[in-house]
Amino acid sequence: MKRFAKLIKPLLLAAGFFSLGLGILGIFLPLLPTTPFLLLSAYCFMRSSDKFYAWLINHKQLGTYITNFQIHKALPLRVKIVSISVMWIVMLSTAIFFVHLLPVRILLIVIGAGVTYHIAHFKTLKKTTAMFHIQKGINLSHYLSQVFGWSPRETFITRQDIANITQWGFDHVRLPIDEDQLWHESGEKNADAFAYLHTCIGWCLQEKLKIVVDFHILRSHHFNNANNEGAMTLWDSPAEQQHMMDLWRELSAELKQYSTDELAYEFMNEPVAPQPRMWNDLVARGYAILRTLEPERFLIFGPNMWQMPQFYASFELPHNATRVILSYHTYSPLPFTHYRAGWLPLGAYTGAVHYPGRTIPDAEWEEFEKANGKGVFADIVREKRDFTKETMIEEIQPAVEFAKKHGFQLYCNEFGCLPSVDRAERLQYYRDMAAVFAQFNIAFAAWDFKGDFGIQAWDRTNFTNGAADTDLIAALIE
């Protein structure tokens, strides 16, 4: 039995290449239908080689046939009429002028009838595919991701919280999830955690909120690993990469029941690959698998290195990508937005910070460098300059241009400022961010609802809500 199992993948791989060859011939020969052979090839590769499957799905020419079929599961009426007409012209001309044996003529007619049925039985493409429209959102952090002792699920996010989010004027939530919250170490799904996930999605749908499910942290990948948080084995381990694909297959099976105009997937939060191509390759693999599992689902991707906008220069979208939303994160100027953040090296600095204007006054720069040391974030946080609304626009230009070039919605799904800075300056930061989003038609999800940056106060001892920050909410919504 084991010996037979070992033979299956090579056989499927060989069948995939054979079918691929027929599909390519079909592009040039009317007698051979192209799409069915390419679909068969994709099926064989999907079960034998993620590498060749991703290559085929993302191929500039061949992938188009598969992508169009996956999305619509239908053919336009014109395509049906032209395909059938051309086929019968060729078939009948061949049978009348070039073939004189009756059995061969009959065979040609039988083949023609079969291909006609094959083309005609597909649905006729009429409907417009549903879209996933979002504009103003908030992150539901610390619920199914980065869960701490102060955020018990049964009280941390409730039905009333979701109702409040809608009443304040938000239209969606970003819902981060972690592997260690939804799957046990054995690989078995955590039934209780998945129940909370479905319950929260249900509340959102009842309140007319759309949902972005964000795969935030894997056991093999933590965005803050360089700061001694979590593991980082994803990029060097093919087994871990395959495991990630398998997790997405399981997650898709759980969530595919939800409408594509109500829920979208974010493939992975803040990748930190040693080389950009590693992330681009993983995106291509993930896109290929998810597009096959759910052809109409909107998928969200951003660039390597914490999804910061300047790294769009090295980001590559899969060929023929459809129904994609492009994301970026920005916390600039970091010494201001993360002032006294205990989880970053710069948290030791207690001098002055400001927005707008000089983030760190020149007189304080030596103290800032001394407090920050040679930490991993030293290069990122060297903000010895003025920072204004215009600087914000300069920072995001690479993301804006990339989205414009590819014709996809741009989405800033993380930004925020800790309340440790001057309150008036903090509110000005949020107002300017919201103005920039409006100016460039960028959707957003602020970080976060009840965490350190929160718009809703949370008593971490008694597990009860405090007051909502109505001024901050107004800065975001208005």
Describe this structure in words.
- Helices cover 47% and strands 12% of the residues.
- It is an alpha/beta fold and 478 residues long.
- It folds into 2 domains: 2-124, no CATH class; 136-477, TIM Barrel (Alpha-Beta Barrel).
- It has an 8-stranded parallel β-barrel with strand order 3-4-5-6-7-8-11-12.
- Strand 13 (456-459) and strand 14 (464-468) form a beta hairpin.
- The longest helix has 27 residues, at 2-28.
- The protein is elongated and about 95 Å long.
- 36% of the residues are buried.
- The model has no long low-confidence stretch (mean pLDDT 87).
Topology:
Layout: H1 2-28, H2 34-46, H3 50-57, H4 62-72, E1 74-75, H5 77-98, H6 102-120, E2 123-124, E3 136-139, H7 153-156, H8 159-168, E4 172-178, H9 179-182, H10 191-206, E5 210-217, H11 238-255, E6 263-266, H12 276-293, E7 299-301, E8 324-329, H13 334-337, E9 357-358, H14 365-372, E10 386-387, H15 389-406, E11 409-414, H16 423-439, E12 443-446, E13 456-459, E14 464-468, H17 470-477
Parallel strand pairs: 1-2, 3-4, 3-12, 4-5, 5-6, 6-7, 7-8, 8-11, 11-12
Antiparallel strand pairs: 9-10, 13-14
Helix pairs in contact: 1-2, 2-3, 2-4, 3-12, 5-6, 11-12, 16-17
Largest beta-sheet details: 8 strands, parallel, barrel
Shape: elongated
So what's the CATH class of the largest domain?
Alpha Beta
In CATH, the topology of the largest domain is named TIM Barrel
User: How do the strands of the widest beta sheet line up side by side?
Assistant: 3-4-5-6-7-8-11-12
Q: End-to-end distance, in Å?
A: 65 Å
Structural class: alpha/beta
Helix content: 40-55%
**Which ranges are low-confidence, i.e. pLDDT below 50, for 5 or more consecutive residues?**
none
Number of domains: 2
